[in-house]
Amino acid sequence: MQQKKKKIHFAWWVLLGLAIMMGVARGGINNAASLFLTPVSEDIGVGMGQLTLYLSVSSIAMMVFLPFAGKIMGKYDIRMILIVAILLQGGAFALFGMMNSVWGWYLLAIPLSVGSVLVTQLAGPVLINQWFKKRNGLALGIMMAASGLFGAIIQPNVGTLIASQGWRASYIIVGVAAIIIVIPVVLLFIRMSPQQKGLLPYGFEKAEGNDSNAAHTVEHKGVTAAVAKKSLAFYALLFFLFLITAVASFAQFIAPYAQSIGYDVQFAGNVMGVFMFGVLVGSLVFGFLTDKMGAKKTTFLSMFVGLISVFLLIFLPDNPLVFSVAIGLFGFVSSSVGTLGPLLTTSIFGIKEYGAIYGTAALGLAFAGITALPAYGFVFDATGSYLYVLYAVAAMILLSVLLIIIAFKGKETLEKAGHWD
């Protein structure tokens, strides 16, 4: 009797859907935003600091919405939620192309952020934790790598599009294209949990057997949110997420930085493609290494690479090849926000109440956007250079290493106190 061919677990189809959605929404919309800053600033006649305040408005909206986002995902159909979310994110981005005053960016930043929180921040880690008991780190790495792959393709094309069609048409094209691509992908591939397909999570069958009721009795070990939020480990993680996001936020200023030292917008678009390639490689490497040697050591590696990148940008920015290599390395490190943040949360606190813990710790991500992004813009307006910003970035990388050490010491305290079960 011929052996029955084993089907691909639906978890991998969910991952494919998440990869495309993240690639378009994060690698496309979110990262392409930096390419518009200089032409918009010059055309509507506002300073870089004043324009980038819209990113702070976006971060404030994120902070307000984050506590409700997890509850919404658990209460309503995830597909409908993500469709509404991409309509908000892509639609707001497209409408930027019709604005004549900086107030338009400030107002549209709110729906842009609300949509982005669901599509690019929470959906991926939450769904991967639902669908993958095994290879969780690799799955998250693949999803984040898609941001790099799509971004590496999209960024140079957006730079060329802005140069040929102008920033207004380019905003509209990118925003509408994102909506058209993401909605069918969500409908085809996204489901909230394996139970909706009558399945067990990927990797659960071998570990626990094929009991049809097993899917309802999966043990999620870890720390409760109430205990976690009172721990030193939690605040170390929250501050780490703030710092590493502030570091990665400099990506929004890569194109302006390149143009400030004499490179043109097309070179800036190309180098953003290199940045996204770095994100792709970093996401895969970090996901793989986390499964192999743990989130702590992988984070230390990321911070070391980050220091090399920043030093190259400080001391050798005038060489196009070195500049491109440095930006690629910076993309490698920037991927750690989307990859290592969720993996560190799981490693330190487990998955018992992962959504509630990460959703709160992620406030550090939002607060970084409120403070770091406009600060970088205003420093440039005041000094005419991004050099001081880069020195601050290097200092934050070093402090991040210390915070990770503190966070894992805090985990040991939680374990000794019997809070891990």
Automatic annotation (TrEMBL):
InterPro entries: MFS, MFS_dom, MFS_trans_sf, Proton-linked_MCT
Designated name of the protein: MFS transporter
UniProt cross-references to PROSITE patterns, sorted A to Z: MFS
Any GO CC annotation of this UniProt entry: plasma membrane
Gene3D superfamilies: MFS general substrate transporter like domains
Major facilitator superfamily (MFS) profile domain boundaries: 11-412
Keyword Transport: yes
Membrane-crossing segments per the record: 51-69, 81-99, 105-128, 140-163, 169-190, 232-255, 267-288, 300-316, 322-344, 356-379, 385-408
Pfam families: MFS_1
Protein species of origin: Pradoshia eiseniae
Record-level Gene Ontology MF annotations: transmembrane transporter activity
Membrane topology: Multi-pass membrane protein
Superkingdom of this protein's organism: Bacteria
Membrane among keywords: yes
Keywords, sorted A to Z: Membrane, Transmembrane, Transmembrane helix, Transport
Subcellular location: Cell membrane
